[in-house]
Specification:
The complex is a heteropentamer, with 2 copies of chain A, 1 copy of chain B and 2 copies of chain C.
Chain A (H helix, E strand, L loop, with lengths): L6 H20 L6 H5 L2 H34 L5 H8 L1 H4 L2 H12 L6 H6 L8 H27 L2 H8 L4 H12 L1 H17 L2 H6 L10 H11 L1 H21 L12
Chain B lengths: L7 E8 L3 H14 L3 E8 L1 H9 L6 E3 L3 H9 L3 E11 L1 E5 L20 E4 L4 H13 L7 E3 L2 H9 L5 E5 H7 L7 E3 L9 E8 L5 H12 L1 H9 L6
Parallel strand pairs in B: 1-2, 1-3, 6-7, 6-8
Antiparallel strand pairs in B: 3-10, 4-10, 5-8, 5-9
Chain C lengths: L2 E7 L4 E7 L4 E5 L6 H9 L6 E6 L2 E4 L12 E4 L11 H11 L4 H14 L15 H14 L4 E5 L10 H12 L3 E5 L3 H7 L2 E6 L2 E7 H6 L4 H7 L2 E8 L2 E4 L4 E3 L1 E2 L9 E6 L4 E4 L8 E7 L2 E5 L2 E6 L2 E6 H7 L6 E7 L4 E4 L1
Parallel strand pairs in C: 3-8, 3-9, 6-7, 7-8, 14-22
Antiparallel strand pairs in C: 1-2, 1-4, 4-5, 9-10, 11-12, 11-15, 12-13, 15-22, 16-21, 17-21, 18-19, 19-20
Helix pairs in contact in C: 2-3, 2-4, 3-4
The complex binds adenosine-5'-triphosphate (2 copies) and magnesium ion (MG) (2 copies).
One adenosine-5'-triphosphate sits at the interface of chains C and E.
């Protein structure tokens, strides 16, 4: 039951998003499409992108779920400031984010000496790609999940506690299942953002085939030498994203109606 | 795929405008050296310098200008002296059919003409500014792009009537429906951009690095570069 | 499992102290908003009172020295909303408590099925909470609270929304399982208070106004609310010359139930509606109390008719009511023999 | 009541986000800071960024709220695919998004002739900046709001309808107020994303001081010639973002506890 | 405002047809899960039945030709959960209906305040729903439904969770405001059915099992559930030789209330618990029906004691109960005179 007129702006919004995609598709040289997108370099980049995005999404879930819990379920002075700070990678142009990462994990960075001592070189490795992706994607998961947690409220958690469930049990058996739709859509957002990540990666991780050259970086390279191939690869990225987003369960929660 | 145990990897950092030529040279080098894998990383010269400064593992660095090369040598990160291996000059790029009828540098100052150039902060922008100054022409571009690629994108899409880019870029973009037409102009000769190359200090493969540098500087390199429109150093 | 509880929640206007002996069931009665649910929330640890103390069997659960979180209290709370977990089946909802106690999945499910059987809801086991009726949800919530095997059980109106067919059966079940447990039970039903509780505590406006064995409180109420829930007439006033001088001006003679109150002391006069006769004119004859009232309402009461006049009531046979031609608005006289009126201090 | 151990990964997550910011701050030449960030060009870029981000956020709200409503409150075949498509700008590297916009709204793009007839020239104008920002930010608002709408359920909307409220009244007086926290956080995300937008803007709108050179573009330019100033300006962006995010009401909804 | 409703909702096992005349109040009774809320949802248009038709005063609201959305029906539904809008004050919750009807803010608030007064909740006007008690929320929800001035009013257990002090007052209010409205009222309380409803419809397992004027259904129930809610004993069986041969083997003589049923016809025997005497041994003397039973429960019932034995009940004075030394498990004989037993076809 939504007002009829709502469909008009909704269609306009859909058009704003879909028209450019159509515009892009209209420029694809469909004749060479298969050849262009199945070259060795293309497949290497695609596989690297999928693997790093997966790892960074897992990292985002592992770190982001606790962060969202702390933000949504506790109160402490300075929480507002902390929330703003945590959301910052959202607003930072990715290239600046990459510089910031370089200033932190680079050889001359904040932790450079410590990492050197440990014999770890983070920057310019696949680890750096994952770090860059996690850095830019984490806020997505946190924001999306914090919203779900707040909307879900604490009533069921309180009931579970009175039934003797420890906080960990409540988290595992009540909180997480209840906000699962929010968690899934947060993870999808994080994965999508990781998949499309470019600026921070090229700055912090560089662009080496097989190691740090993810699909967006590969597309960037192609743009210089072969714009057609770049557009074709972009379309591949779009298709991969559609599949990933489409795979995420979007089943609406049973609300049970009125009693 | 990634490097295997029995292959040696040579990592080359090169300015983005060298993408096509260095990919070709990399393949030649691999063909000549069994078990050597040439890894190429392209980007803005300034970005690449920063990355090397922050610990990126590179064996060879080819810059699109001398300023960034000086930055690297100044930090003591170059092994030996850089050597110039190519030059490049500006050309006017217009959409296919040249709808605005541009014939020379003077036309770029015409009111109503949508001109795009590189921002003065990036090498091609600095060159454009210098050329215009030398010719006494005042350019009022509708956009100062971050890179040559961005200028070309505006021109190929017909968004801009003309752009100032390097000769090599015009050739690389091709002249098909999605390409550009290049218009040479005499004033370009006043500003020549020089490409230096150097082995990076601390390279694991100093010999291979030197050999690659030599390949670029040698006859093969010169031929490939000339095909792409680069001038001799 | 003795419970001592003091709950001071100023922003809800609640300040209550109650004690529950081990194995005792206490019924908490009181008007809407009196603070009953608040007291339960303090006991369960879901509300931290501004001032207060909860001690269960010598263990301080809420107090100055600390605060035991709800899950570590072994206190189960059946809240006023059923709040079944929407993502779990009915069976898993009930098995939640046993699972949390560390029992295995199988054992927990078995005990869940047993408790579902007790509340006559075993056939709902596989349903989702979104797909059952309001009363069914209420029964499942009762089973879930019982299955958690708590040391202290808090029930907030467990019988609301239940139909007449299940209510007696569930009352039986509760009577059996509550017998040897320490329980606080909020209810609006006098039958629950009488049958399930050993003791009754009446709250009004956030304060305890009455506290005593169920039968005593309900037969000798001292507060208007307790009188109402017990279905008795009550007139509060001052003791003067062997009569209660009501706050509303009436005077009622009666038998002082305890050692005679001193003149001027605050007392209540209590009498059963069935002891009241109704006349059009004040009758002569044996010494009676006569109260001129206006009928506000007539309602069936078992085989009889209950005639309400403000906060007083009289029970008549249908025949007498018809003969008197009673209807709301008619002015009549309520008469009650002094021997039927009990007077005692409040 | 959250488990204690949750704080450990939460702290790690916070560190992942905050360390790079600290790394960046450590490189700021504090002596010249004020001079650097109050230059004319800097202020022009900042003001352009704020204005365009505001407009694009408004655009996102106007188009995104109806889109989220259609996705969350209706069912039709192909809805899953539509949802994936609408989320695509999330995954598209911004530069590719810029190309797609160019292919659509550009002079020789899909709508080029139509726009020409209308006498509208989008390219190289501030309008193009807003379009680019709205294109990349819209999915944020839609995803965040759709999640809130689903979590909130339809029970209150049904009650409102039985009380005689028309769909429009229900939307205005029940749905929107109930999901306000989600809408606000979605709008904050959209604003933040617009503020940090770089790739699509440079590709689609170009970069001209006062017209299309937003703060991220300005920072990018500065990076080459004056890294100190670039870092300083990035920090300004961060501070602006913190203020904006901090201003958004994050008051948790009163859940009312157990009854 | 005549209502004709047919609701076939197979996945809930509901298939019901009811009619409500203009200005009539119909009470919907039945066990938990019988389908009462489902029927209301179909009437309100919040549930679209697989098969069914809702016609209000000649206007088809649900049917083959179309579906009028809930907001355009002028049908207000007070659901089993209060569901007060959490973001609006209590006053604005109640004013929501009038506002939606297009009344101004001021007028709406005034009428909201009036309705809040009617349910004795005017002092809650400025509170948020999150900050009031369960019973208070229930009362506000009642006011909200009434304030919407609907053509058809659907009330789902409006009196649950209300305390004894407000319940009679609210019942008065409902009686007044329901008098000239078309209303369907779900309740588990016989008093509500008798006082508020003109007609009673009893549902069981998704089917209508009884339908008639309130007093008649409750004094002459034909379904076990109606007998139970009316507090009457019922034995169903076949009519043989002037007696009801119960399905459980007992035979009960009684007076055929209507034109004598044919032998072998299905009939019920109904008698009041107060007509039952209890003995340890079957008594001799005047012809009585004797039923050997086991006491399952004793509970107070007004001044008396209700002795339950399975689904039968007897009311005794406290004295007799004590003399008989009754307790659950004791085997006794329930005796009832044939003249007290009414027999009629089902
Ligand atoms: N969450 C809350 N915040 C503030 N005040 C509240 C809250 N819940 C209830 N109150 C108020 O506190 C008082 C006590 O409420 P409580 O819920 O304890 O009443 P109750 O005795 O359980 O009533 P009921 O029989 O209606 O359930 C009431 O005046 C109520 O309005
Ligand atoms: N949302 C639902 N989906 C599927 N089945 C349902 C749903 N809600 C209720 N049911 C089932 O439909 C049947 C009728 O339910 P309904 O809610 O109408 O009962 P009710 O008569 O209102 O009972 P109560 O007195 O307990 O409120 C029950 O068997 C119930 O389990
Ligand atoms: Mg309560
Ligand atoms: Mg129901």
């Amino acid at each position: 039951m939504i007002p009829r007129w709502v469909y008009a702006p909704a269609a306009l919004g859909v058009a704003l998003v879909l028209l450019p995609l159509a515009g892009m598709a209209s420029r694809v040289a469909w004749g060479d499409f298969v050849d262009l997108v199945t070259s060795d370099s293309a497949l290497t980049a695609l596989s690297l992108s999928l693997r790093t995005s997966l790892v960074s999404t897992v990292l985002c879930v592992l770190l982001g779920v606790p962060m969202a819990l702390v933000l949504a379920r506790t109160e402490f002075p300075g929480q507002g400031v902390l929330r703003s700070l945590v959301l910052l990678p959202l607003v930072l142009p990715p290239v600046v984010g990459g510089i910031a990462l370089l200033y932190t994990f680079g050889r001359r960075g904040l932790l450079g000496d410590e990492l050197d001592l440990l014999g770890v070189q983070v920057a310019f490795s696949t680890t750096a790609v994952v770090l860059a992706q996690a850095f830019v994607s984490l806020p997505f998961l946190v924001v999306s999940l914090e919203g779900s947690l707040r909307s879900a409220g604490q009533r069921y958690e309180v009931v579970a506690a009175t039934l003797g469930a420890s906080p960990t049990t409540v988290l595992r058996r009540v909180t997480i299942p209840l906000v699962l739709p929010g968690l899934v859509s947060g993870a999808v957002l994080a994965f999508a953002r990781s998949l499309g990540e470019f600026g921070a990666t090229i700055t912090f991780a560089g662009s080496l085939e097989g190691t740090t050259r993810t699909l967006p970086l590969y597309i960037y390279n192609l743009r210089v030498t072969d714009p057609d191939a770049a557009v074709a690869m972009s379309l591949v990225l779009v298709v991969v994203a559609v599949v990933v987003i489409g795979l995420a369960p979007q089943r609406p929660r049973r609300t049970g109606g009125l009693r | 795929g990634g490097p295997d145990d029995d292959t040696t990897t040579l990592t080359v950092y090169a300015a983005a405008s060298l993408t096509a030529t260095f990919e070709q040279l990399g393949e030649e080098f691999e063909a000549e050296h069994d078990g050597v894998d040439v890894q190429l990383s392209f980007g803005g010269s300034a970005d690449l310098v920063t990355q090397i400064q922050e610990g990126a593992h590179a064996d060879v660095f080819a810059s699109a200008d001398t300023a960034n090369m000086d930055e690297l040598t100044g930090d003591g990160l170059a092994s030996g002296d850089p050597e110039d291996f190519a030059t490049n000059t500006l050309e006017i790029a217009v959409p296919p059919g040249n709808p605005a009828g541009v014939t020379g540098l003077q036309d770029l100052a015409k009111p109503g003409l949508d001109l795009v150039v590189c921002a003065p902060e990036v090498p091609c922008g600095a060159a454009a500014q210098a050329v215009a100054e030398a010719a006494g022409v005042t350019l009022s571009p509708v956009s100062e792009e971050q890179s040559v690629t961005d200028v070309l994108a505006k021109v190929t899409s017909g968004e801009a009537d003309a752009g100032l880019v390097y000769r090599t870029d015009v050739l690389a973009a091709g002249d098909g429906a999605d390409g550009v037409e290049g218009i040479e102009f005499p004033e370009a000769a006043s500003v020549v951009n020089t490409y230096p190359i150097v082995s990076v200090e601390g390279s694991d493969e100093p010999d291979l690095a030197r050999e690659f540098t030599e390949l670029v500087l040698g006859a093969t390199g010169r031929e490939v570069l000339a095909d792409a429109g680069f001038g001799p150093p | 499992m003795t419970l001592e509880l003091t709950a001071g929640v100023p922003d809800r206007g609640v300040d209550v102290t109650i004690e529950v002996a081990a194995g005792e069931t206490v019924a908490l009665l009181g008007p809407n908003g009196a603070g009953k649910s608040t007291v339960l929330a303090v006991a369960a640890g879901t509300l931290r009172p501004e001032r207060g103390r909860v001690v269960l069997d010598g263990r301080e659960l809420t107090g100055e020295r600390g605060f035991v979180p709800p899950h570590a209290r072994r206190v189960a709370l059946l809240a006023q909303d059923p709040l079944l977990f929407p993502h779990l089946s009915v069976l898993d909802n009930v098995a939640f408590g046993p699972r949390s106690l560390g029992h295995g999945r199988r054992t927990s499910r078995e005990s869940a099925l047993r408790w579902l059987g007790e509340v006559d809801a075993a056939d709902l086991a596989d349903r989702r909470p979104g797909g059952i009726s309001g009363g069914q949800a209420q029964r499942v919530a009762v089973a879930r609270a019982l299955a958690a095997e708590p040391s202290l059980l808090l029930l907030d109106e467990p019988m609301a929304a239940l139909d007449v067919a299940v209510a007696p059966a569930l009352r039986q079940t509760l009577r059996r399982v509550l017998a040897d447990r320490t329980v606080v039970l909020v209810t609006h039903d006098v039958l629950d208070a009488l049958l399930l509780a050993d003791r009754v505590v009446v709250l009004d406006d956030g304060r305890v106004v009455e506290d005593g064995p169920s039968a005593e409180v309900l037969s000798r109420p001292r507060s208007p609310f307790a009188a109402r829930i017990a279905g008795l007439n009550m007139v509060a006033g001052l003791w003067r010359d062997g009569a209660v001088l009501g706050d509303d001006g009436v005077a009622i003679r009666g038998l002082a139930a305890e050692a005679g109150p001193a003149p001027g002391e605050r007392v209540v006069a209590v009498f059963r509606p069935s002891a009241v006769s109704v006349f059009h004119e004040a009758p002569g004859g044996s010494p009676r109390n006569s109260l001129a009232v206006t009928v506000t309402d007539l309602e069936p009461h078992g085989d009889q008719v209950r005639v309400r006049a403000g906060h007083l009531a009289a029970d008549l046979t249908v025949q007498s009511a018809a003969e008197l031609d009673l209807a709301p608005g008619v002015r009549v006289v309520f008469a009650v023999k002094a021997t039927e009126v009990y007077v005692y201090r409040t």
